[in-house]
Every structure is written in structure tokens, then in C-alpha cells.
Specification:
It holds the Pfam family YbeY. The chain is an alpha/beta fold. 46% of the residues lie in helices and 16% in strands. The protein has five helices and five strands; from the N terminus they run ββαβαββααα. β1 (2-3) and β2 (8-13) form a beta hairpin. α1 crosses α4 (119-134) and α4 (119-134) packs across α5.
Amino acid sequence: MSQTSLLELQVSVEEGGWPDEAVLEASSTRILEHAAAFLAREEGQPFPKMTPELSLVFTSDAEIRSINAEWRSQDKPTNVLSFPAFPVVPGGMPGPMLGDIVLAYETLVRESEDLGKPFDDYLTHLLVHGFLHLFGYDHLETEDAEQMEQLETRILSGLGVSDPYGDSDPV
């Protein structure tokens, strides 16, 4: 478990060809701390007095397919799933537990290759994407999707990752 200034992360590598857990924890902490600081600074996102927690689960297509079927009635693998612990609207005060982000290795590898993007950049994008879902951002409606995509692009720019929506992106 990693204690950071804005977030406390619980990282678990369950299945798949993921890098070492310590490597994933260090990079995820850097990425999500940047995203949290950006939301606080640029969007006025409040944070609870207690350091909010979130869990990251790095798993396989088979496992995420099972989760996707159970929770979203979609019997197929997907790249990332987010499960907010409490309902929150963008800009609202999150609870002390933000929720869970689950990522599937094989899908990320396949999609990053299809998009011609470095795996690490694509993983960074999906971590930011999943993180924004925990703060109530969504992409079901066009206006909401545009807002979320703009936030992702701005956050990723600060991490040195190019605009993921410059080309087709399956998120």
C-alpha cells in the first residue's frame, strides 16, 4: 500500500502479463497523484480531510470478462472498469473510499497495438479515464463525453502523453 499526499492506493496484480507490482504501484501513484492534483487545482475538486483510498486491480481478459458480465451484463472483456464506492457528481465531495479500477492486460496490449500507441501511454490514459469515473465523470451523453475527453487530454498532457482522441480511441 502506498501513502501519498492526495490518495492512498491499494494495488493488486491478479493475472496477466503485467509488470512487477512495485513498478505498477510507483507509476500508478505518479499518474493518479497528478490527476488528483489537476482536478483540485484546475477544476476545484474538493477532497475529504481523510486521504481518500482507491484500489487498482490489474488482471486478465478472462477475469474482467467475468466482472463485466456480472456487473454490466456484457459478456465480453473490456479495457477498464471503474466502480465508484459512493455516488458522486463531478465537482462533488467524494467519500473516503473512492472505489475500484480494474484493468485487463490482454485488451490493453491489443488495443495499444491497434492504435499504434505505446503500451505505457495507453495504460496511463486508461488509469486517468477510470479515475475520472470515480469522480462522477461519464461519457454516455455527447456533452458529458466531450467534457471527460477534454479533462483526460489536459491531464495526460501534463504527463507527457499525447491527445488520445486525436485518432480513434476505444475508451
